Every structure is written in structure tokens, then in C-alpha cells.
Amino acid sequence: MRYISTRGQAPARDFADVLLAGLAEDGGLFMPETWPHFGPSDWRGMRGLPYPELAARVMQPFMGSAIPYDVLRTICHEAYAGFGHTAIVPLIQLETNLFAQELFHGPTLAFKDMAMQVLGRLFDYVLTKRDRRVTIVGATSGDTGSAAIEACAWRDRVDIMILHPHERTSMVQRRQMTTVLAPNVGNVAVQGTFDDCQDLVKAMFADVPFRNEMRLSAVNSINWARIAAQIPYYVAAALALGAPERDIAFSVPTGNFGNVLAAWAARRMGLPVARLIVGSNRNDILTRFLASNDMSMVPVEPSLSPSMDIQVSSNFERLLFELLDRDADKTRDTMLDFRATGRMRVADPIWHRVRGLFHGFRLDDPGTEAEIRRLHAATGYLADPHTAIGIAAARALPCAGGVPTVAMATAHPAKFPDAMERATGQRPALPPRMADLFEREERFAVLPNDLTAVETAVRALVGRN
Ligand SMILES: *Cc1c(COP(=O)(O)O)cnc(C)c1O
């Protein structure tokens, strides 16, 4: 399988190159040159498989010869072995045609683990084969950093340094990063904001001698491998609920558009997906686009669902590329114009086509809290604020004809104890395997918002032997 850039000015690459590169050199995102397709008998043949086996089968066509199938199977088994639920992605029925699929049983209790646990192992395999090492640097306001650290800790070929804003993350979030005491993991608390952390990471990448010396890399949400590793759970839910003989709808709490794009990809590969619901909080650029064909950037405002507090949904470029019939020149022009003006419109026929499949739903913080309370009273189920938006969206937009909707449960409620307590009077407990999180030893450096200080810390981590 080869990959091409959505902006058409980068050479085609294989899966291993795409994994290591992340972004294409022309600023575009990598897409598979052709879409793999599964027919009804292929889907039926996957029914009832253990999740790691299903995941390997669904991902295999994207890897081609870059990752041998037996290696991929082993990676999938190892990636999900540490999950806190034997079903890995259990389906919970909430109403007659409404289900939640829990994607939060991984080490950091959020859905990013579903892909990151696979990604860390893929990195190790490819880097070992090429006899290379990389240093992953990233900035986090919470979830992504901890998922990346859990995925890279103890890997042979990777060092990872994550910057977080000092005393501006939740205790759970900080401890999920700083209590991972692997020798290849570094944490820096920057005396500044999340934006300062992001600027420091950008400055490290812009410092070319430093970037080359440290072989810097990233595992951000535009990496194709992350999308590929998110497709299998949509397949698992659909098969469990009767596909390919029965249609299915998904409701996805959305930030960077990576999770819902994976659902779209599953449909593109032949899964009978009738509808995709995009849930947002007050940061509603996508729902505004679906309502009025106007994607315009506005400043981010904090909400109860911080992982959806975004200004731009970077993976939307991949859908745009498909909507424009893979015309890379048009995609590039549209994206450059969007960056320059802060606004995007697509041609009316295209917008109507998008609306034939995607439905938007926005919920503010009081609405989110009310939905958590309502759901708990009606069913006893505790949904975190992100998940609650997806569930409310699915209830607001039911499908006709008994098509079931599966709402993606993206975070464990124990990650948001304050919001849960306000809504329900209950503080959800951390799962038993994490109950001692607050007693574990922490390791992190507090550093000033200063490039030299941070680069020195990265050098020390990489040169520790
Ligand atoms: C990252 C995240 C999201 C948003 O997912 P995208 O792929 O960025 O759309 C939603 N919920 C939680 C809990 C997350 O961590």
C-alpha cells in the first residue's frame, strides 16, 4: 500500500515512512492511494473474533509489506493485553436502539490509548528494522501526552519528552504522565501556559541542528497510523449489532476529527454505516460548518470536555480531499485559503453531500451536565462529559427504521471527578489497577519557559547512557 499527500506535492510513501513522518513535506496529510474493500462475506468472517485478531485483519491492508501480518497480530495482542476489560471495547446498551462503546479501558483511561498502544509498538518494529532511534517531543494539556508516554515507555528505540504547563493540568492527568518511571521517559513542567509549551515544541523542531541531532519526531493526531488503528472498533460494534445485514449509525464526540474520520473510513471500506453524528461542545466549528457551510475559526474557550476544545479540526482535510474527488490542487488551495482568511466554504453540491451522511450536534456545559444527570438517573450509567455529548447527540438525532446508534465513550468518568460529582453527587472511583495513582512516586523537572533549558533536558534524556 502506498500513501499520497492531500496536497499532491510530496512523493508517494509506504506505511513505514508515513508512520515515521507524520505530516507530509508539502504540509498535507497522508492518505492511502486506494481504499481497501471488504465484502459482506469478509465482514461475516470477522464476526466473533477476539478484538486483537479483528484489529489485525482490518488494519492489514493499510500496512502492505511494511509490517508482516504475523508481526501485526503480535503487536495487536500486546497492545491490548493491558486493558482493564476482557472485551477491550465493550458495548453497553442504554436504550432500545442506543448503545455506548467504551474505548477507555486502556492505561490512561481515554480512547487515545486504542491507537497509541499500537503506534508505540509499530515505531519500535520499524526503527529496529532500520537500526534507527527517534526522540518524540510533544506538548500536552492533558490526555494526549499521557497516552503517548504510556505507548512509548520501555520501548527500545524511542525516547519521549512531554511538556505540560506547570500546575495547569489536573492531578490525575499530571500523575498519569509523571509516575511512569521508565528510563526513556521525560516530563517537563513548564512555568507557563499550554501555548508556551506548544511554542517550545515548535521551536525545537525549527532548531534544525537540534532536530537532526536528536532525531525529533512526533505522534500527533494527524499521523495516519492513528486513524488506521481506530477503524477496527467501528467494525467490531457494527458486526456485534448485525452488520453487514443491518445498517448502523455512530455518534462521536469530536475534536480534531480523527475518531469520526476512522468511522468514515470504515464506511468507505464497505461497512454499512448509515449516519455519522459529530458532537461538539461550545467550540463548535464543525457543527457550524454542517449547519451553514461556514467553517470559521474563532478563539477556543475552555469547557467541561477539554479534549474537544479545539479551534481547527486538522483531520478534516482528509475528508475534504475525498469530497473534492481527491483533487490535491483544490485541496491545497482550499486549505491555504482557510489558513489565510480563517474561513472555509465548499461548493453547495459538496456541502449537501456531506450533510447526507454527517449530522452535527452542539451541547454547552449546562446541557452536558444535565445529560450526565439524566442518563445516570435513567440508567445508572456514568458517562464522562465527552461521552455525554455523544449520547445526547444520538438521542437528539435518532435513525429511522430501527437502525442502532452507537455513541463512542471516549473517556472514563473517573478522569473528570468534579464534573461527575456536580452532576450526579457521585465521585467515580479510579479502576483498581490505578487506585494507587496518588501514592505513586512522581518524576518531573520544573523549568522556566526557555528553549535552552528545555533542549538541555531533552539532551540529558537522550544521552543518559
Ligand atoms: C481526543 C479526544 C476526543 C476527540 O477526538 P478527535 O479524534 O480529536 O476528534 C474526544 N474525547 C476524548 C476523551 C478525547 O481524549
CATH-level-2 architecture of the domain at 91-108 and 224-424 = 3-Layer(aba) Sandwich
Radius of gyration: 21 Å
Strand proportion: 15-25%
Helical stretch tally:
19
Give the total of beta strands. 16
Give the averaged pLDDT, no decimals: 95
CATH topology annotation of the domain at 91-108 and 224-424? Rossmann fold
Instruction: Show unreliable segments.
Output: none
- Main sheet overview: 6 strands, mixed
Derived structural class:
alpha/beta
What is the CA-CA span between the terminal residues? 38 Å
The helix content is 40-55%
The distinct bound ligands, ions and cofactors come out as: pyridoxal-5'-phosphate
SSE layout:
Elements: E1 2-5, E2 13-14, H1 15-21, E3 30-32, H2 40-46, H3 51-63, H4 69-81, E4 91-95, E5 98-102, H5 112-130, E6 134-139, H6 143-152, E7 158-165, H7 171-178, E8 185-191, H8 194-206, H9 208-214, E9 216-217, H10 224-240, E10 248-253, H11 258-268, E11 273-280, H12 285-292, E12 295-296, H13 316-323, H14 328-341, E13 343-344, H15 348-357, E14 358-362, H16 365-379, H17 385-396, E15 405-409, H18 417-424, E16 445-448, H19 451-462
Parallel strand pairs: 5-15, 6-7, 6-9, 7-8, 8-16, 10-11, 10-15, 11-14
Antiparallel strand pairs: 1-2, 1-3, 4-5, 12-13
Helix pairs in contact: 3-4, 3-10, 4-5, 5-6, 5-10, 6-7, 10-11, 16-17, 16-18
Pyridoxal-5'-phosphate is lined by residues 110-112, 143, 221, 253-259, 307-308, 386, 410-411.
